[in-house]
Amino acid sequence: MESTRSEYIEVRDSKIHNNGVFAVKDIPKGTKIIEYVGNKITKSQSDKRSDEILEENKKNSSYGAVYIFELNKKYDLDGSVEWNTAKYINHSCSPNCEVNIIKGHIWIISSKDIKKGEELFYNYGYEYDDDYESHPCKCDSKNCIGFILAEEHWNKVKKSK
Ligand SMILES: [Zn+2]
């Protein structure tokens, strides 16, 4: 299948992690930039797939990207497919994009005005669990918390230090 495309972005090398997604033109806040696509899977397939991806990541890198989004109570979306361009967007503690589900579709939407040439980021929103330290963040932003974590859990990390 052909990779998804958007007039706003391109994929190239990133300082943060292998590939990154960059703006090829100015993007106003609130723009639907690209859809996050993949295979619709049931919750039980999803649990299995998450474990598999985590195992693969343990072998290949310490980054720990999981690529699975919750669509609704029944289904998740596995975005670890070749044609999903949005999966190359890196995590940051100071993101300029957010992820929204609109009518059953997952969209990457700009949460700030983005200038041509800037790299796109969203917060991967990982849950706080015993394993959070295995997902270090290297985003280099001023308020980097040091781990890939949903912002609602940041206070727990600060307290434990
Ligand atoms: Zn960070």
What does this structure look like?
- By secondary structure, the protein is α+β, with helices and mostly antiparallel strands.
- It has a domain at 9-34 and 81-159: Beta-clip-like (Beta Complex).
- It has two helices and ten strands; from the N terminus they run ββββαββββββα.
- The protein has helices at residues 43-60, 154-159; strands spanning 9-13, 19-23, 32-36, 39-42, 68-70, 75-78, 90-91, 97-102, 105-110, 121-122.
- A three-stranded antiparallel β-sheet has the order 3-9-8, with no helix packed on it. A three-stranded antiparallel β-sheet has the order 4-6-5, covered by helices on one side.
- The chain is globular, with a radius of gyration of 15 Å.
- Bound molecules: zinc ion (ZN).
- Residues 92-93, 137, 139, 141, 144-145 line the site of zinc ion.
List keywords for this structure.
alpha+beta; 15% helix; Beta-clip-like; three-stranded antiparallel sheet; 10 strands; 161 residues
Q: Helices, strands, pairings?
A:
Blueprint: E1 9-13, E2 19-23, E3 32-36, E4 39-42, H1 43-60, E5 68-70, E6 75-78, E7 90-91, E8 97-102, E9 105-110, E10 121-122, H2 154-159
The protein binds zinc ion (ZN).
Zinc ion binds at residues 92-93, 137, 139, 141, 144-145.
The SSE order reads: EEEEHEEEEEEH
- Radius of gyration, rounded? 15 Å
Q: How helical, in percent, are the residues?
A: 10-25%
Strand order of the largest sheet: 3-9-8
Oligomer: single chain
Can you count the beta strands?
A: 10
CATH homologous superfamily (4th level) name of the domain at 9-34 and 81-159:
SET domain
The chain-level structural class is alpha+beta
Percent of residues in beta strands? 25-35%
What is the name of the CATH topology of the domain at 9-34 and 81-159? Beta-clip-like
Number of helices: 2
At the first level of CATH, what is the class of the domain at 9-34 and 81-159?
A: Mainly Beta
Overall CATH architecture of the domain at 9-34 and 81-159: Beta Complex
| Contiguous runs where pLDDT drops below 50 for at least 5 residues | none
Hetero compounds: zinc ion
Choose one word for the global shape: globular
Task: Tell me the distance between the termini.
Answer: 46 Å
